[in-house]
Design a protein that fits this description.
The chain is α/β, with parallel strands linked by helices. It has 16 helices and 15 strands. The chain has 2 domains: 258 residues, Rossmann fold (3-Layer(aba) Sandwich); 192 residues, no CATH class. Strands 8, 9, 10, 11, 12, 13, 14 and 15 form an 8-stranded mixed sheet that branches. Strands 1-3-2-4-5-6-7 form a 7-stranded mixed sheet, sandwiched between helices. It starts with a helix and ends in an 11-residue tail after the last helix. The relative contact order is 0.09. The structure holds 2-acetamido-2-deoxy-beta-D-glucopyranose (3 copies).
């Protein structure tokens, strides 16, 4: 359909071509060192951020390195947001300004922040840029780091409320995928995070209100954040472009140290994420069934299968016997988030929306084990709510001590509501896990179905709890709209 949206897009392109070359401008910062290899950093700003707002960041980089760093801060974009058409114009203009100012080498490096990164990453693959730095931004989810054509530094902030730490964990995971190419990847495409920094601190001053309200409160000062940015850009740029062996050695060493910190930070996120789904099985559903079996846990073996609808809808959990062991076959449906929506590129959550579990009830286990006569051992069955509590406990124990302290001191808590009961599968199936936010925190109400044989639960994924603890809980509540 050729609607208003496409008309506006055509008009925007036209206006950009008409006015773009005049409006885009670069602010040049000359090197402060007189020796060292020449490197030209071309900054592409985040949405609605002015060129001038990167001056302090750029200065911190120049101060941190022995390289002779030139800087071009691009800005004055049409609508204050860079777009595909303006990108090549901006880089070309920056290069010609750098040359005019006296830069002689051809070592140009793109440095993009937030939204700017989503345009620069596509442009950079086939351009005059020799390396790329993404600050609070990433390459696409499906591009492997190894296949990225030029060296790439993904520099993240722990308290980035826009490009969240859970999204960066996906980039970190790519780095660990290939063990043979591991060290090469570590130096060529490092993924590093800055502790206590937020999205705004890659620049200086204020973000526009919409982004500002998404961002989290930083734990370090702007000055400290800029010093850290300088440190890591120096490591990356020196490792990539320097010809001084002792400086390269030191840079590689710094990149390894930064990587070890990343392992400690990101690996627990991935471990908890993998509980939701590990290929064909939901480990979390297995654990839930064992938790429901409680005192009989030692006498049952549990298996699981992840299914999609309509198959999930039609299946029931099973009990079978193998020698004296009882085998419970559970079923799970993982309701993942839609990642195709371009507007959710920023700020999107990584964790599933909900986990649907079909478990065998404790009563059925009790009967099947022939323990009717043994009434003394029998305790009340657990609730779906208790699984949500378990998810939260796991999320907390898998988070760093600093993150836990932040959650308890200034995070809005997860509030577990009593289960909403449904009498039939036909009513349980279409009802979603209920979650809602207010000043108090995040309310979570599981949807349960209990029959003499089955215990169905729609519950929060542990990764959702972990994402809440580490990111969303730290935001002040803002009514939607
Ligand atoms: C791992 O990386 C090496 C070197 O970068 C590459 O040659 C190899 O094909 C990669 N292996 C896999 C399984 O991706
Ligand atoms: C290499 O760097 C080190 C440390 O910055 C410096 O002491 C040394 O003089 C440099 N070597 C050359 C050949 O420039
Ligand atoms: C339960 O007790 C009754 C009589 O006390 C006995 O006949 C029956 O076999 C017992 N059931 C099991 C499963 O142990």
């Amino acid at each position: 359909m050729f609607g208003l949206a496409s008309f506006c897009r055509v008009l925007l392109v036209f206006l950009t071509i008409l006015t773009g070359s005049e409006s885009i401008s670069s602010m040049i910062l000359e090197p402060i060192k007189s020796t060292g290899e020449e490197v030209g950093l071309i900054f592409i700003p985040g949405a609605y951020i002015k060129a001038e707002q990167y001056r302090k960041t750029a200065r911190a980089i120049q101060l941190a390195t022995e390289l002779r760093v030139w800087v071009a801060l691009t800005g004055n974009y049409f609508y204050n947001v860079v777009n595909t058409n303006e990108m090549s114009m901006a880089v070309d203009a920056a290069i010609s300004e750098l040359k005019k100012a006296g830069m002689t080498s051809e070592t140009y490096v793109g440095v993009a922040h937030g939204w700017g990164g989503y345009y620069l990453r596509d442009y950079a693959s086939d351009s005059r840029l020799k390396a790329l730095v993404l600050m609070g931004s990433t390459i696409t989810r499906t591009t492997s780091l190894r296949d990225f054509p030029i060296p790439l530094l993904t520099l993240a902030a722990e308290l980035d409320g826009v490009t969240r730490i859970t999204r960066i964990a996906v980039e970190y995971e790519k780095l660990t995928h290939n063990t043979t190419g591991f060290f090469k990847g570590l130096y060529r495409t490092p993924v590093i995070y800055i502790e206590g920094a937020n999205h705004a601190q890659f620049a200086s001053g204020e973000l526009r209100p919409r982004l500002k309200s998404a961002d989290l409160k930083a734990d370090i000062s702007d000055k400290q954040a800029h010093r850290e940015i300088g440190k890591y850009l120096n490591s990356f740029l020196t490792a990539t472009f320097s010809s001084n062996d002792s400086q390269i050695d030191e840079a590689l060493d710094q990149l390894s140290v930064a990587f070890l910190r990343s392992v400690k930070k990101f690996q627990p996120f991935l471990d908890v994420r993998n509980l939701d789904t590990d290929g064909e099985e939901s480990m979390w559903t297995l654990l839930a069934q064992e938790y429901f079996a409680e005192e009989y846990g030692g006498r049952v073996a549990v298996s699981n299968k992840i299914l999609q609808n309509p198959w999930f809808f039609g299946k029931e959990p099973t009990i079978s016997f193998n020698d004296d062991h009882m085998i419970i076959g559970t079923i799970a449906l993982i309701h993942a988030r839609d990642r195709t929506d371009f507007r959710k590129l920023l700020r999107g959550k990584e964790s599933p929306i909900e986990i649907n579990m079909k478990l065998v009830s404790k009563d059925a286990i009790w009967k099947a084990l022939g323990s009717q006569n043994d009434t003394s051992l029998r305790s009340e069955p657990n609730t779906c709510k208790s699984l949500n509590r378990l998810a939260l406990i796991l999320a907390l124990s898998s988070s760093s001590e600093e993150a836990r302290e932040r959650y308890f001191s200034r995070g809005r808590p997860i509030i577990l509501e009593n289960d909403a009961m449904r009498g039939f599968n036909t009513l349980w199936a279409p009802t979603s896990l209920q979650t809602w936010e207010d000043e108090e925190g995040l309310h979570v109400r599981a949807i349960a179905l209990v029959t003499s044989n089955d215990h169905y639960c729609k519950v929060m994924s542990p990764y959702r709890a972990m994402e809440w603890v580490n990111v969303d809980s730290l935001r002040a509540y803002r009514a939607q709209g």
